[in-house]
Amino acid sequence: MEKKRTEAGPKSARSRDRGRATRRRLIEATARLCEERPGAEVSVAEIANAAGAFPNQVTYYFGSKDSLLVHAAFLGLLHDARRIERIGRQAPDPVAFRRNIARAVLAMPSLPAVAQALAAAVSKPELAPVVDRHLQLLFRQSERFMGQLIDSRGWRTRRPLSVETRTFWSTALGAVLLVRAGANGTATDLDLAGALTVHEAPEHGQNLAG
To answer: What is the distance of C-alpha 142 from the center of its chain?
Structure first.
């Protein structure tokens, strides 16, 4: 009996590793296909072929194609967010930081797919936990980046970092949703920079009035 348990351990670990690798390939292949063909329908067969997997593995690992599309959309968003962080680090002052971050975020190629994922979660409640999990990861990643940057520069924000990051991303994603819903104008009509309150720390004795 002890021998059987010992043999089962490595096999189970290998099986879990293979499962994680397959899952990752499916997400990455979906993200790549969606980026190459924005707005186009991507079939389960195409995704499986691109990932070197079987079509039934989509439902096995994700439950549905829609759930996989949500995972892929947020994978693209998190990758884009890391590129945005590099842009933010290059800003010489808070004004440039707010302006450059806002412009870069609204130009991110992943935003339309994420907006589509958010819309899908509204009509399919079973996707809401998946969306929420990814949003929380995005907020934490952004809050960590902002905290490190403003500490190293001596900058400040006029509200808690958790509120700052949530407000900023909610504004950006809301703008894209409005445009996709048919609202007049484009996302660039929005003053996204105004959703950030990053500023220079006041000199000792100076207040923040104005």
So the answer is: 10
